[in-house]
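Consider the following input, taken from an annotated entry for General secretion pathway protein GspM (Comamonas serinivorans).
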Amino acid sequence: MDGGRAMNWRKPLRTPREGQARKLPAWLQKGVDWHAALAPRERTLVWAAALVVALAVCWWGLLSPALSTLQRVAAERQNLDAQWQQMMSLQHEAQALQAQPKLSPQAARQALEASVTAGFGDAAKLQWTGDRANITVTQVSGGAVAQWVARARVDAKAVPVQVRLTRAPGAAVLWNGLISVGMPQP
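Applying the prediction step yields:
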């Protein structure tokens, strides 16, 4: 309804009267005239060229960026999955450490002393300073240090506070230094 009157949908849209052509912009009119002056074969070639250009624009503007994004997504997903797995393993490790029963300070000291003896043997000396233990190591491998730190965390609930290691003279893969660990609070 328009102003109270029903619209007649059968009535054609306003078209220019006979003799009145729609005015096109001058640049467009020149293109229409140029196209009309071409032979049918040339018109076909112009349309084919326009189609090729349109397809190229669609490819470079729409499809190519989407396809490159899909290729990157696969690699990024693998990276994110690896990070997720690492985070989950750290979470499980933290939950396992939290689930372990609390140790008394004396039991924690005994467990640390046992882990130092088992991990390093005579290559380490243990000294106590309050609630910290200082372990001086000589001629030990990096793997032995890593295994000992993991074992001390689990068995004695000891947390490494400071590690100062230097290469042992004359040995390419052995280390000397000091490892300070904090003991759990009661």
